[in-house]
Amino acid sequence: MTTIGLFLGSSEIQNLISTGKLTSCEPKLRIDSIDSTFIQERLGSVGKIFSVADEDGNVKTKAKLTNSFVTTYGNPDSKMVSGLGFGNDIQKCKEQYAIFWKENFSESSLNDSTELFVSIWEHVQ
Question: Strand 59-72's sheet: what is its strand order?
Answer without folding.
Answer: 4-8, 49-54, 59-72, 115-124, 21-27
